[in-house]
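Researcher: Next sequence.
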Amino acid sequence: MTVGSPTLADISARFISTLQPEERGALQQELSKFVRWFGPNQSVETIDVRAIETYQEQVASSGAHQARRLEPLRSFLTFAQRQGFLSANLAKFVKLKRSGARRDLKGEGSLAEEVTQLTPEGHAKLKAELDRLITVERPNVTQELWEARQDKDIRENAPYDAAKQHQALVEARIRALERLLATAAIIQVEQNGERIAVGSRVVLRDLTHDEELSYTLVGPQEANPRAGKISVASPVGKALLDRTEGEVVEVAAPVGVVTYRIEHIER
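Model: Next structure:
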């Protein structure tokens, strides 16, 4: 290993730091398996095609879901190459076999969590964010890097380091949005629905605290409690799904059980 060259553990930590908090858990867990297997103190530049192929063979022989195990590795290799830590694009040698994906969507231990339900409004908002990142932020970062490179010694160039970090964050968010939008299911909101579903606006009476509340049920990506948008994956959201006007539901909260009566449903 070249003296002073970054280790695999160093670069993987940098990569994880560029991810959104909701992305880090499972991805970090899977990537750490590769880091331990290859050697955390090994230089990232010593990774080669044979190592990638051997690791894939091991994953396949273990019976693990290959797409779930190898997608983090491919994302990491792409990051390492874009950041200049790898001279070759090794990500293209990571082959993801998704033959079981359709079956998994219907079975236990599924990939259903990869399919995000979005309202048309939420989908449009995320699409607009992606467009802005690609057409505005990405060119801005390119300009920042060009200006920072005017200082020939980039080893101690704080503006260059800041621009590279900005680039990593922008590219990570672009990848996350592209992945999310590619698998998103847009909920077609029907008018005058009798049962609560994603997209429903619900007026509740909090019988425990004697107050009226109004919520719109949305997917996890759109949740914004301050704006009255709660996730269908939240305790209240789960309790309300598929309920009708007049029903009373109980929700376990840190302060105890809270009881709600459904006053009105709008679609």
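Model: The first helix runs from residue 8 to 17. The chain is about 45% helix and 15% strand.
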